[in-house]
Every structure is written in structure tokens, then in C-alpha cells.
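Researcher: Structure prediction, please.
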Amino acid sequence: PRVAGRPPLHSQSQKSTTRLQRETVIGSDLELQLQCLLDLGDWSFSMLYEERGPYPETADMSNVASYFKAATELEPASYLAWHSWALTNFRMAERYTGRHLGHRSGTSGIQDATARARSPPTKLNESLSNSDFASMRQLLVTSCSGFLKAIALGTKSVSATVMQDILNFLTVWFRYGYLPEVATAVKQGIQQVAPETWLGVVPQLIARIHSSEASTRNLLHTLLSDLGTRHPQALVYPLTVASRSPSEDRKKAAEVLVHSLRVHSLTLVEQAILVGEQLIQVAVIWHEEWHQKLEEASKLYFSEGNVVGMIDMLMALHGKIRVPPQERTAMEDQFVRLYGEQLEKAYTCIQRYIHTMNDHSIPIPTTTPRQQRRRDSQDRNRVMHQATALLSRAWEVYYDVFKKITRQLPLLINLELQHLSPKLLLIARNLSLPVPGTYAVDGSAVNIKKFGSNIEVVLSKQRPRKIVMIGNDGLEYMFLLKAHEDLRQDERCMQLFGLVNALLDRDRKTNKHDLAISRYAVMPLSHQAGVVGWVQNCDTLHALIKEYRETRRILINVEHRLMTQMAPDYDKLTQLQKCEVFNAALENTTGQDLYKILWLKSTNSEKWLERRTNFSRSLAVMSMVGYILGLGDRHPSNLMLERSNGKILHVDFGDCFEVSMNRERYPERIPFRLTRMLVKAMEASGIEGNFRSTCERVMDVLRDNRDSLIAMLEAFVYDPLISWRLLGTQHNAEEAEEGEQQGQAAVQNGAGVNGAGVNGAGVNG
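Model: Predicted structure follows.
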């Protein structure tokens, strides 16, 4: 029976179905229209890119922008629409910078980024007309707002392009934040973005905390303070590192932010400062510090005649050992007992030298003494001769101490934490600090419960330490504690590899082949020390080859031995003769060490085939990415082989952007390492199998996503903290302008996204 006033049931069902079908059709039409607009914009830009380079005329780009603008109006919740719209406006704004620098089409994107970075933003309004400058300002505001909207709408499935948006936004903000319109757009739009979004770019944010632009600096401090309120564990390490910076401006800015953290996380901050200071103390003991500094001081004095530099260096060391006994550790007490009396005699000689020179008003030389004496009178020469005798007596003592420390250092391999840092062993327990590399975006982390009591010294030039942190989950986390190295560049490289992994995982051609680059935790403690995650179950190629040859009684340097036998005066030969000697050494050796190692360490043929495939593919991926990054210094101790799956793992990323290619001595002229031993390990197909196909697929993905890569590489360029080393020149990493200019030149030389293909990259070399 039908209820009065109600239509039949079949009639209701039919109307409901019709309405649902209509909504579905409308929804599908909306998606189709949106996709058409996005495709039209992409196609239009691709044609312009091929015809006129990355920065076509603004009038031509306006047609492209109109498609993306229509897409944002059609579907305001579309991430891709806002991403494309913002990126197009950003390119149009940069077109004015390209015009300002006399841009020529056909140059690579990174070269253009380099040229733009070299031009100070404050000069743009001086070289552009009023109308062009006004147009550029409007485009910058539009792109800034669009990037922030896209970042807010971004999801995990598009994480690679979201990272590109974040980095491009930071470029606009930090480079053009002095413009009032841009500052206002940033202040309004940044509220839409979840604070967790910025966790992936904390190093880039921390690098700018001492910006000279007041509005940018204040807004950045506000952002970091808000982020610190929600995620104090993510900020406490980098901020305490910045507070130890030798740059006063940076140090003061970091201290302000650390103070804001103390308000709500006092215990966490105190623990981070304690752990950081104590780990730095453990990284270098007095024996090592004196051994290194005495060697450096001797070069200053005997080679350069720089007595002032020598005295400054030695007085700093003497000041350390003169601390009260109650403030010294057991290891430091041992050093004072062994060498304190001798060093006190040397200290007295140095002081007498200083008084002698000052009493006679003779300036302490900073050049070679022989050159100085020729210009001095006989009386002054007599006084200087007496003073120099005091220095000679001091150096007799120093040399004796140096020899004793040299004999003692090889014995200091297994150290006890209680002798190096009793505070770290006894006080640093049940901390709120996370184990490096375990903090997640959702706030979860494994906290440090305590530190292992034993410390193992790795026998190498820098003598890093193998330390253990025990987490509150009961597991042991091993790290390599390194001194005399700035690990901030390694930290940025891990960011780049994360972006590449996301790109490879998203692409259909590569996501089924397990091509992800292995990464590890990197946590700088200061500009000269830090900890690196210890990669388990890995061996360096050097260690594997050495073990293989020793078990078979083959000389570890058999190739070099053959070359010296054939040509004892090898260095005096011509280039052609050197090649002949080199080829003769190759003909008399097999070079199958790694090939045999992969076979012998596999449990069965199936495992061997899997390991060989992983070896070839992982080597290909890092060859292409290393080529883009300009990565050098790939000697066998910097290449590791994973025991379980045969993948190649790279460590030590200090030589990026073709630094090694521009070295004065022994420059590396190759794009990546592909020696005979590596090729033979790929078996019969050599480079023509998995290696070549993987290289081509990876390079295709990198080129297709060049915008994301260039955005990440520009973050390297603009980061004023990276210590760029080009042409044998070492610059202060804290001097922003010098680091920026060198980094830009390095990127210009090392960019390969738009460069040579697989053959050009040296696969056949």
C-alpha cells in the first residue's frame, strides 16, 4: 500500500538514480575539463621551451598562464592547478631577471639560476623600467600566494613536486622578501600551511635565521618559534648547532630562538646542549688535538715564517691544558701527567720570546725571518737571534712531545666513555632527545636512554669514533662521530637523495626496479663535527678487495708495482708513454676481484644473480645522480657494498659540484667512477645490460623532473653555510657571500640535468 502524499518507491529510486548519474557526469566533465586545461598549459609551455628556451617572452607565457589560471578557477581545490599556476608566474617573474642579465636562450636551467643568483636583488629595480619592475612584483606576489596554496593542498602522493613548491617559495621569500608586497603575501599565505610541512626544509630555514632583511628575519623567527612549539625535538639539534657558530650574527639569532624553545622545553634544550658539547669533546681528545695542531704550527713557522699565527695556535692549546684539575677528565689528566711538564717548559720559552720582542719594540714576524733580517739593523738582528733561539728551544720540546704522541696514538683504539666524558655516561640518561634520524612528522621518535660505555676508534687519518646510543625501545643505534669535517653538506645531499627517491618511486619506468638510493642519518654538532648513521652489514670495496687479495697472497697494489717496475721514472714520462705503461699493467692483471667477491659471498646462484642485478642498478643510479651533483672523490673507501643484497652505497659527500675536477693536483676529469673492476663485476653484458638501461631510465626521470631538481640545487646555491672549495681555495663557510658565489659557480660547472646523455656521461669511457 502506498503512503498518502508520497510517490511510488520505484519512482523515488528512479529519480535518485537519475540525479546520481547527472552528478557523476558533471563530476567527470569537471575532471575532464580540468585535465584538458592542465594539458593545454603543459603542451603550450613545452613548445615555447623548445623554441625559445626556459624563459620565453612574457606575452607568450601569458597564454600558458591563462590555461592554469582557468584551472584554478574551475577547481580551487586542485593541487596541480595551483602548482602549475604558481610555477608559471615564477618563471615569468624570473624572465625579468633573465632580461636584466642578458639571458640567451639555449643555456641550461642551472646556469640561468646561477646568473640570477649572482645579481643582488636590490639592483633589479635600478635596471628595470618602472612598468617592468611593477609587473615583476605582481608576478612574484602571485607566484608566492600560488606556491603557498599548492603547499597547503599537497599530499604524500605528490611529495616530490610539493618539495619543489616549498623550495621555490623559499627562493621567492628569501630573495625578494624585501619587497613589501611579497612580505605581505608571505605573512598572509603562510598561515594556511600546516607547521609539519616545514620539517623537511629545516636546514634551509635555519641557514637564513640571521638574514639582513628585518621583515624576512622576523617572520622566519615567528615561523620557527611556532614550529618549535609543536615539534621542539626537530629543532633543538640544529638550533643548538647554530648557537655554536663562529659568526656572531648567526649565533645571536640562534640564541634568540633557543631562548624561545626554553620557555616550553627547558629540559630538552639543556639536554641537547649537554649532549652536543660532550660529543664534541669526545670527538677529539687532547692527544689528537696537540698532534694535529703541532703539525700545523710547524708548517706556519718553518715553511711560512708566520710566527704570529704559530703563537696564536699554540697559546690556545696551552690555555686548554691549564684548566683546574677538577674540570679535567681522566684522559686529560693522563695527558697532563705525560706531557704537562715538558709543555710548560716550551710555554715558558714562548712567553720569553714574546717579552723579548715587545721589550725591544720589534714586531713579531709574519713572513720568512730571512727576508725580514735583510731590512733590519745589526742590533735588532742580535735581539731577534736571541729570540729565535728561544723558539728553537721550544720547538725541540714540541718535537719530542710530537714523537711521543705519534707512538701513543695507535694504541688509543678502544676508549672508555667514563675517561672521555663522565657526564655523557652518568648524567645523559633517559633523555627527551630523539636518536638522530628517528624523529617522524607525526612527532613520534625513539628517545636516547643512555650512551654505550665503549668507544671504538676507526683507524684512518681523521680517527672517527664508533659510538652507540641505546634507545628507549631497547635497541642499539650505532653512529660514526666525526671531527674536522663540516657535515652540513652531507645533510643537504641526503635531502637531494630523498627527492630523487620520491621521483623514481613515482615514475612507472623505475618504480618496479627498487632503485632507491640508500640513505643514512646525518646530524651536525657544529661546523667542525657531527655524527653519521653507521650503516650495518656493509663493507668498503677497499676492505673487500684487500681481504680477497691477502687470502690469495696477491699484492694489494700489484698494478702499481707492475707500473713502477716497467717505468721507475713514471712521473717524467709523456702522456702517451704513461698510457702505454698503464695498459701494460692492465694486460698482466685480471681485474676480476670484485667479480669473484660477488660470486663467493653468494649462498647460491639465485642469490648471486639478485646481488649482481642490484649491484649494476644501484651503481647506475648513483652514477647518474652523482653526475648531476658533480660528485667526486669516489675512491674504493667511499664506496660500500651491502652484504645482504649487493647494492652499492656511497659515503662522504664533501666534494660536490665538480670540486675534484677543478683541483690543482690530480684533478678528476671523469663524470663518475666506472673502472675495469666495476665493469667486470657486471658479468658478460658489462655496461650494455642492466647498467645502461638503468642509466637511461634514471636520466629520463631526472630530465622530466628538472624543475624539482633545479629547485633543490638552487637551495644549495643560496645556502650561505656550505663551505665551497673550488680551485684549491678554502673559504670560510660562515661568510655568506663568498659561499654563495662559489656555490653558484660550482653549480654552473656541475649541472647535468640538461646535459649529455648516457654516452656523454661516460658510460663508454
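Model: The radius of gyration is 31 Å.
Researcher: Thanks, that helps.
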